[in-house]
């Protein structure tokens, strides 16, 4: 199989693209964290790294920053949505405000709409969104599961739209991992065992829209 080239692509996020010749556009609400990601990207071979402060759950800010990226860098050709929070409480214990916050960060922060039109125009690009196995089975964290299920449904529908529009050069992938060794996952695992779901084993998923 021929190795895919990413030279000349403009990728939003993803350190793995750093040594592959792509220009990286980093968005984060955490300014210091974003600078550290930029440093790591350059350390691993990235020659073009552009850092932007953005609250992806704020639609106006997303549109504003997307316009800046287009003017200063160009059209993003590979978009990776990876924002997420987990409020590890039982269904009846989560406040309405926290439920809305979970949906706002995990679902409404998907920035596909800001970059997809340009991809469709040139029939070239790739949308990638990180969901969760919890969005497939609803195994724990009802509000978290609901937000990730929404991501899976949206990406499937986008893929269908692209296919029927004849935009076969634009791909859509949703990644549904099981527990990964992060602070978020540790909170989810604690909640999972509290609810008696520790016996559930789910293999990593990648829904095949790509």
Automatic annotation (TrEMBL):
<dbReference type="Pfam" id="PF00106">
    <property type="entry name" value="adh_short"/>
</dbReference>
<dbReference type="InterPro" id="IPR036291">
    <property type="entry name" value="NAD(P)-bd_dom_sf"/>
</dbReference>
<comment type="similarity">
    <text>Belongs to the short-chain dehydrogenases/reductases (SDR) family.</text>
</comment>
<dbReference type="GO" id="GO:0005811">
    <property type="term" value="C:lipid droplet"/>
</dbReference>
<dbReference type="GO" id="GO:0016616">
    <property type="term" value="F:oxidoreductase activity, acting on the CH-OH group of donors, NAD or NADP as acceptor"/>
</dbReference>
<protein>
    <submittedName>
        <fullName>Uncharacterized protein</fullName>
    </submittedName>
</protein>
<dbReference type="InterPro" id="IPR002347">
    <property type="entry name" value="SDR_fam"/>
</dbReference>
